[in-house]
Amino acid sequence: MTARILLSLITCLLAFSSVSVAQDTLQIDFNTFLNKALDNSGQMKYQRQDVEIAENQIKQAQAQRIVPNMRLDTQHGLVPGVESDRADLQEDEYYLDPNLRNNWNDWAIYTKFQLSAVQPVFTWGAINKAVEAARLGAEAAQYSFDAKKADLELRLFDLYFSYVLALEIERLLEEAQDKVNQVERQINEMREEGDSSLDESEVFKFEIYKSEFEIQKAEVEENMNFVKETWNYVLRNEAGDVFEPQVRFLDPVAANIEPVDFYQQAAFNNRPELKALKVGEEATETYITSLKKQNLPGLYLAGYVNFANTPNRPRQSNPFIQNNTNLFTGGFGFTIRQKLNFFSIRANIERSKIKLKQASYAQDAAKDGILLEVNNNYRQASLADVKVEQTDEALVTSKRWLRQEQLDYDFGMGEVKDLIDAMRKELELKLQLKQRIFEYNSSLAKLNKSAGIPLTTLITN
Questions:
Q1: What is the DSSP string of 8-19?
Q2: Quick one: 23 exposed, middle or buried, by C-beta within 10 A (0-12, 13-18, 19+)?
Q3: Which of 145, 218, 262, 418 has the highest count of CB atoms within 10 angstroms of its CB?
Q4: Options 1.20.1560.10, 3.40.1700.10, 3.30.230.70, 1.20.1600.10; which CATH number does 3-7+31-63+123-296+338-460 get?
Q5: What pTM value is reported for the model?
């Protein structure tokens, strides 16, 4: 197989982490393979965290609706008691003694709790807009995740069918080995019979071909081992099962290539990257609206409760006199809050407007890039289709040639050189056809991916 296939396998391998020991071998279809690989992908788990963070921001924005600001402060310590020389004063009247002093021989534990809360009543819809902006941000994050997932699915598509390609090449080499053995037996028989028509130079060429063939077999064997190890790595599971493709023969995908404008329009409608940018632009617009509303005065309901207790400090009976070490008080009421950091708010709004323009430009740039990607993939898929068709026709011709050379050789009319050339060309075209079928399917998968069309539609077809 080509270096390009090996590179795609290595790239797919890097998206996963850890290896398991094989026990059972199971055959699975592409959809099962895809789901298992995605579940094991460390890359997808990492990308999913961006979605989780964005969804958490929704919860944070929603939390601003119900008592967004509640605070509890506590204070604890040791304080001395108090003493008065006036016998006519009760303990709750000590505030009347101007000569009241600390009693350093009387210590007690001081405890104080302060609870305060604020509930928005009317904020001109600023909170709702913030929630909506966060929701749109989470939606954009999901589309970005889908884009990363589509990239990995494309690599997994190549990985699945590279195994099928390896199986096909193994079968072709086994067939070729039978023909090589047949020619070798014929040469040995001619030697034993002392056939004078046997040209030793042709025998040398056959021996060279055998050596080259053995090298090719070794390459295919190593490639197959690499594909199997990659599969085991990607599909690791606790049971240690080993999987093989349910598809055993590599055929062209039964799907016609549509006109290029079909894929261009599908890309503009379906690509998750464009959806992410579009929704991100809406999120920025909504966030700007929220910032503007936050600059308006808001109506809030606020309340507080203060409690302090120190056993050696008596609570005073006069409501205008508070003993901070022994009290219980509270209250609530409406308040109007107005942010006065106008310059900071204006700068934030301007910054968000710049981001809004950036999102618009990013959409235009993404559309340009996607259009070029679709056109390039369409060109490659169309060319791959032609290559498959022409290689298939060439293979039919090579089979006729090989049959003719085999008949001529059997009747003593042909030469070993011509037979070897025919065998080499047939094997070369068989391998080339399977390789080009793989490339055609891969290029069609890339075309569908660039158009935002799910790869599963190819498998269904």
A1: HHHHHHTT----
A2: exposed
A3: 145
A4: 1.20.1600.10
A5: 0.79
Query: How far apart, in whole angstroms, are the C-alpha atoms of residue 387 and residue 395?
Result: 12
Domain ranges of the chain: 3-7+31-63+123-296+338-460
Please state, in angstroms and as integers, the Cα–Cα distance from residue 7 to each residue in 16, 120, 168, following that order.
15, 58, 20
Encoded tokens for 324: 């901070």
Is the separation of the CB atoms in 395 and 433 below 8 Å? yes
Rounded CA separation 404/426 (Å): 13
SS3 452: coil
Residues 6+ apart with CB under 8 A from 3: none
Whether 55 and 138 have beta carbons less than 8 Å apart is answered as yes
Strand partners, 304: 116, 331
- How far is residue 52's CA from residue 55's CA, in Å, rounded to a whole number? 5
Question: How big, in percent rounded to 5, are the helix, strand and coil portions of the chain?
Answer: 65, 15, 20
How far apart CA 267 and CA 145 sit, in angstroms, is 17
| Average pLDDT over every residue of 314-327 | 83
Nearest to 376 by CA among 276, 218, 267, 269: 267
Nearest to 292 by CA among 163, 124, 162, 442: 124
> What gap in Å lies between CA 156 and CA 456, rounded to an integer?
12
Q: Which helix (H) or strand (E) holds 221?
A: helix 200-234
Q: How many residues does the chain have?
A: 461
Q: In what order do the strands lie in the sheet with 327-337?
A: 69-83, 101-122, 298-309, 327-337
Q: How far is CA 240 from CA 18, 38, 153, in A?
A: 12, 17, 23
What token pair was written down for 299? Answer: 């109506």
Q: Sorting pLDDT into bands at 50, 70 and 90, what band is 452?
A: very high
Instruction: Say which residues have a Cβ less than 8 Å from residue 88's Cβ, sequence separation at least 6.
Output: none
Specify whether the CB–CB gap between 276 and 143 falls below 8 A. yes
Kindly indicate the confidence band of residue 461, based on its pLDDT and cuts at 50, 70 and 90: low
Alpha-carbon radius of gyration of the chain: 40
As a whole number of angstroms, the distance between CA 451 and CA 447 comes to 6
Highest mean pLDDT (candidates 1-10, 92-101, 301-310, 414-423): 301-310
